[in-house]
Amino acid sequence: MQIFGIIGKPSCGKSTFLNAACLTEAKVSELPFTTIDPNKGIAYAKTKCVCKELKVEDNPKNSICINGQRFIPINMLDVAGLVPDAHEGKGLGNKFLNDIARADILLHIVDMTGMLDKSGNRVQEGYDNPLEDILFIEKEINLWFEGIIEREDWQRFTKMYLRERKKFIDELHERLSGIKITKEDIILALKKSDLYDSNPAEWNEEKRFLFSKTLREISKPILIIANKIDKEISVENLNELKKRYQMPIIPCSALAEYHLRKYNEQGIIEYLPGSNDFKILQPEKLTNHEKEVLNKIKSNILDVFNGTGVQESLNFAVFNMSNLICVYPVYDINTFSDKDGNVLPDVFLVKKGTLLRDFVRKHIHSDLADNFMFGIDGRTKKKLGENYELQHNDVVKIVSSK
Question: Are 83 and 90 in contact (CB under 8 A)?
Fold first, then answer.
């Protein structure tokens, strides 16, 4: 299961985002370093389920289906706030960086009001520049990567494996295995930074940082989430930021999402995460102030940004940044059910380009992969070979010799 690390400077809204995405109760405060130990939760990627297309009523086991929308679980990790020079141990830097080592994607929550200094202390509105927050946090994480790669023995390390590139990549992979780096990540970073054919022992500081930065961008990409977007100053800052920062930015109000999900949980409103509207079911249970808050959420956030941004952030990270697709394995190809009669019981998020046999080995059972004969396409009923490249929303049955 994917792990998303929620990062940002102290008090920017990380815990609120976690609570909104997962309906957890992580402690929220305006004081810096309220979060020390990482808070965990389960959020969900949202995608159109195949049940409507196949005209079946499903009963999922590893996910949730609501009105034809499939919600697939992902792990969330909210870590301590990051301050300048965290890679040198400032603030809770060492702990923060060790915590995010497990993450596949980093969701950077940025306070768009500019009301926090770099250490997370409250200042006047507009004091801080969101772009500076983005750049300093990217720099800190890139320098952390560089420190892990170099350690104190870089020259000796590179000379040892100078004559055999594969050996160098293998040993570098071993060095980086604790932060979920693959050999493919390393090879791609070497090529993208134009260093694949160069001698690592001769890399200067600039080239070492370039490789570290490129490897971080490949292995732990960062999605910018522009939080507290309901403020006028936040919209102004967002418009300016888009002119100067070309990577994807998603406007967001984590607090609005949290309110909507809590009211929905209590049965006061009907709201599906990621929607741009809600329906009030029990107006008598709302105070005038609460009704006013809901009206503002509707007019200032949902109508303007087509949602609160929380679900959009999760979906973008899963389907665009991680490049994952959905695959539904079944036992009965006619009823689309498992051995117990559960219809479309499981859906798995897998990398685009995954081959059928590799999928079976990783997500179903290694014995089934060892005795793999062929697959069957749930729609066409055609046979699929072991090297069939899975497509988004494939429904497949696996046939083995045992």
Answer: yes
Full set of structural domains in the chain with CATH: 326-400 (3.10.20.30)
CA Rg value for the chain: 23
Whole-structure pTM value: 0.89
Between β-strands 348-351 and 372-377, what pairing exists: parallel, antiparallel or unpaired?
unpaired
Closest CA to 100 of 60, 141, 134, 139: 141
**Cα 240–321–51 angle (5° rounding)?**
120
Q: What is the pLDDT along the chain (402 residues), one digit of tens a residue?
A: 789 999 988 778 888 999 899 986 544 434 344 444 567 899 999 999 999 999 999 999 999 999 999 999 999 988 766 655 544 544 444 556 677 888 999 999 999 998 876 666 677 776 788 998 899 889 888 988 888 888 767 888 887 766 677 788 888 898 888 888 999 999 999 999 999 988 888 889 899 999 999 999 999 999 999 999 999 999 999 999 999 998 999 999 999 999 999 999 999 999 999 999 999 999 999 999 999 999 999 999 999 999 999 999 999 999 999 999 999 999 999 999 999 999 999 999 999 999 999 999 988 887 777 888 899 999 999 999 999 999 999 999 999 887
Element (H, E) at 137: helix 130-150
Distance of alpha carbon 47 from alpha carbon 57, whole angstroms: 17
Four-residue CA torsion sign, 149, 153, 155, 159? negative
Residue of 249, 208, 243 lying closest to 225 (CA atoms): 249
